[in-house]
Specification:
This protein is of the alpha+beta class. The two termini are about 20 Å apart. The chain has a 5-stranded mixed sheet with strand order 3-5-6-8-7, with helices on one face. α4 runs parallel beside α6, α5 packs antiparallel against α6 and α5 runs antiparallel to α7.
Amino acid sequence: MAAKKIYDTLSKELAEEVQKCGCMKQTGVSLRHMMNFGCTSSPRNLLISAQFLHKELPIRIARRAIELENLPYGLSSKPAVLKVRDWYLDSFRDLRSYPEIKDKNDELGFTKMVKMIKVRHNNVVPVMALGIQQLKKERPRFDYEDLREIHQFLDRFYMSRIGIRMLIGQHVALHDPNPPPNYLGYIHTKMSPLEVARTASEDARGICLREYGSAPDVNIYGDPDFTFPYVPTHLHMMVFELVKNSVRAVQERFMDSDKVAPPIRIIVADGLEDVTIKVSDEGGGIPRSGLPKIFTYLYSTARNPLDEHFTTADVATACTMAGYGYGIPISRLYARYFGGDLQIISMEGYGTDAYLHLSRLGDSEEPLT
């Protein structure tokens, strides 16, 4: 079935290549390896990096394209999902038609192309969310348990996307002739988790202020001088999502109350193995029965902004307080990508504690499936 559909979209030769590449073994990379490799962005290293991506990206992209064709409950035929599949097939075609990379000019041309591929895939998450939303509207009786298969696919799909974007972004960033201090590509070798948490919290409060007119305070505790190597954009995204959920929960709970809204507390702890960031709120918590659902892509405690009047063209521009229920599961994937994790503990009637664990060691390879 999958091959037939891919044959309809691509030439016979290219469709066979998709199938062939989709069966090949992926090669995982660790944060430490990326750092060691990025220490010297010499022309030789950039050439090796481009040659690796030229071989690796088609394998990863082909796997996802094939999987997008074989989703249960008719999800593969939803217009939004077909659009995403076509982006993946276009990117596969671009990569496979690029000639062997032998010199600096080849490498620069390749870098320009993968940069365009990254932009092409910018809106994959909201467009896939629209496809899921279309399915939920058709099958309103589906419980999240029934959709376990789709949830597992989305975990694999989004984890793969994080990896693809990290590899491309890292390669492109190594070309920067004037990188910011202490940066090796995307990686900040002396990142202050406190500083990133502060910026992310202010961004989350800003959205709350726009939506509600006021926002609870966020207090941050920890050693301001502590730094470790990590990807600041990843950490910002994770803390932003956690704080956004917390400020919304507290704001809605205390909106009509005479009491002052209690602050969100962020604690940064630096252990030997992990850096742990705890985000605590008094927003009323989540019922115990709802806790397993918060890590699924089909559940949100807030109104879902992906209504039927949205199209794949404008869905990505929707910026609301609640998002589309993907922030928590995707944050956990970002944490796990470099060997960390995200746990959430809730006290119904009081509040929620989120524990974001980040590996300090940097030697865990990408979790590829």
